[in-house]
Amino acid sequence: MFASYIVRQEDKAKVHNVEVIPNKECVPKHKLLIMDMQFNTTKRRRKKFERRVHVWKLKDEKTCEEYQSMIKNKVEEADCKHSDVNKHWQQMKNIMMDTARVICGLSEGQCRHKESWWWNEEVAEAVREKKKSMEIGKKKN
After folding, report:
1. Per residue in 24-70, pLDDT tens?
2. Which one of 51, 104, 115, 136 has the largest count of C-beta atoms within 10 Å of its C-beta?
3. At what angle do helices 85-104 and 61-77 cross, to 10 degrees?
4. Cα separation of the two ends of the chain
5. Which ranges in the chain belong to alpha helices (H)?
6. How far apart are CA 19 and CA 32, in angstroms?
7. Rounded to an integer, what is the distance from CA 136 to the centroid of its chain?
């Protein structure tokens, strides 16, 4: 019996053991088709956490002034007489980033709650109560 089925071109090599069940109709004028398809599963790698500078702290006037004065001091100390623009830019970038790390600080770890707009003290208390009741329920069993 002739069996026709639709599979993407790149997946045709993954189809094996195609069989048509002749006496079983799924819908009128269609027969039940059974096939094995083999797909390779790939494991997604997690991105390594990269610490970030808390630049939002520069919105505070006192912190911003401290940052600016520290940069001025470092620029005056540094030898900025490079003929190459790229070397000059790299040196300025390093000065600004190092100063920002010192003044603003770095993030400690990955955020546990990706969408934390709903997480507040009320929700935290409800979760604590639920965990306590689960522990009590496990001890009874």
Report:
1. 777 777 778 888 888 777 778 887 888 889 999 999 999 999 999 99
2. 104
3. 140
4. 58
5. 61-77, 85-104, 121-140
6. 9
7. 36
- Cβ neighbours for 99, distance < 8 A, ≥ 6 positions apart: 67, 70, 71, 74
Whether the Cβ atoms of residue 78 and residue 91 lie closer than 8 Å to each other: yes
Both structure tokens of 45: 């790698």
Residue 111 has pLDDT above 70, yes or no: no
Of 5, 64, 79, residue with least CA distance to 36: 5
Cα–Cα distances (Å) from 86 to 57, 89, 91, 96, in that order, read 29, 5, 9, 15
| Nearest-angstrom CA–CA distance, 130 and 38 | 43
d(CA 23, CA 32) in angstroms, rounded, equals: 8
Q: Which residues pair with 25 in a beta bridge?
A: 31
Q: Closest Cα partner for 3 from 17, 97, 13, 80?
A: 17
CA distance linking residue 46 with residue 9, whole number of Å: 31
